[in-house]
Design goal:
By secondary structure, the protein is an alpha+beta fold. It has helices at about 10-20, 95-105, 115-120, 170-175, 185-200, 220, 225-230, 240-245, 285-305, 315-320, 330-335, and strands at about 1-5, 20-30, 30-35, 60-70, 75, 85-90, 120-125, 150-155, 160-165, 180-185, 250-255, 260-265. The radius of gyration is 22 Å and the shape is globular. The chain binds iron/sulfur cluster (SF4) (2 copies).
């Protein structure tokens, strides 16, 4: 198996940066976030970036089209350009799975060409987890934290990294780096992976189950009285949706530039009172309805429309970031433990 010792990691980034832009997680005063690699850049040891890597394909804001007005003449400007080739380093298994979920939304007909353009040009370099957190529950959704299944997977072991390419794109990327690797027996990598799997079994959320959720629960869950209690303290701040790697709602707005119109899209949140507001008003008038929408979407509607696949990957970001300590885990536990309460 291909292996690279820790002291060659800098060389790896240098070589890769000659071919494409490489983004790595770095520590900031407010947690880890992605930054373009440059010499001397220190890669964060944090388990997660605060915001997920979905920004690379589905940025928080992007221009869709511009209309330039000159008297009665309107010029339509398409801002799309061939996207740069880039690689994203250190993506955990949960976030890698989230791209598959976003693909189901953005790459099904009609294909979102803005998303596809970025997706096609990005190489995802996964990194097996070695120190999962108490807020992690990716195993609930059948994800193996030790095998991200990205274009290339890295496993930290034996004083370096073991590399495994899973896709053609990944193989081409590894091959483009020349002879910086050495061949080593994969036993140490397998040991490290097993150690991760053992830790996962002992985490506080290891037994969280999706049993009781899914496509067939729509009517039963929709009218359940527990939503009122669960949503009571929700501030509608939208933090949970903005840190979530699978949340995909957006708004499209026009901005008057003074000499035309800039049409852009930006992330939106089903937790906001003006979300999907129409001429007649808002279809979800209370926070209870908005709160229910978020969790029904992930646990019932999404699997109903996508062969049973849930819309959560158990990354735990919402568990760590909600200001009132409400999250999908609490919702799942409430419905699982009090199934007969109504
Ligand atoms: S669940 Fe928490 S993070 Fe999400 S909108 Fe409500 S208060 Fe904000
Ligand atoms: S709902 Fe929470 S745990 Fe699930 S993917 Fe989103 S942020 Fe992660």
């Amino acid at each position: 198996m291909l292996y690279l010792s820790n002291d060659k990691l800098e060389l790896f980034f240098e070589k890769a940066s000659e071919k494409l832009n490489v983004y790595v997680p770095v520590d900031t005063g407010k947690g880890a976030s992605y930054k373009k690699w440059e010499k001397g850049c220190e890669v964060s040891k944090a388990l997660h970036t605060v915001r997920s890597a979905k920004d690379f394909f589905f940025p928080q804001t992007e221009n869709l089209v511009e209309f330039k007005m000159d008297g009665k003449k309107i010029e339509i400007i398409d801002p799309r350009r061939e996207t740069e080739d880039y690689a994203v380093f250190g993506v955990r298994a949960c976030d890698v799975r989230s791209f598959g979920i976003l693909d189901k939304v953005f790459l099904s007909e009609p294909v979102d060409s803005y998303y596809k353009n970025r997706r096609d040009h990005g190489v995802i370099i996964g990194l097996s987890c070695s120190r999962p957190s108490e807020t992690c529950f990716c195993t609930t959704f059948g994800i193996d934290a030790a095998a991200p299944m990205a274009d290339v997977d890295l496993t930290e072991a034996d004083g370096g990294y073991f590399f495994k390419a899973n896709t053609e794109k990944g193989s081409a990327f590894v091959a483009s780096l020349g002879d910086i690797f050495e061949e080593r027996d994969e036993a140490k990598a397998e040991e490290a992976k097993e150690a991760t799997r053992e830790i996962m079994k002992k985490l506080p959320l290891a037994n969280l189950t999706t049993e009781g959720f899914g496509a067939d629960k729509l009517e039963e869950m929709f009218g359940d009285a527990r939503w009122a209690e669960l949503s009571e303290a929700c501030l509608g701040c939208g933090t949970c949706t903005f840190v979530c790697p699978t949340c995909q709602c957006y708004d499209i707005r026009d901005y008057d530039t003074g000499h035309g119109v800039q049409r852009y899209r930006c992330w939106d949140s089903c937790m906001y009172s003006d979300f999907t507001k129409m001429a007649h008003g808002n279809p979800r008038l209370t926070q209870k309805e908005r709160f229910r929408q978020r969790f029904m979407h992930k646990l019932v509607y999404f699997p109903a429309n996508n062969d049973g696949e849930f819309g959560c990957v158990g990354c735990g970001r919402c568990v760590a970031s909600c200001p009132i300590n409400m999250n999908i885990v609490k919702v799942m536990k409430k419905f699982a433990t009090e199934a007969d309460n109504d």
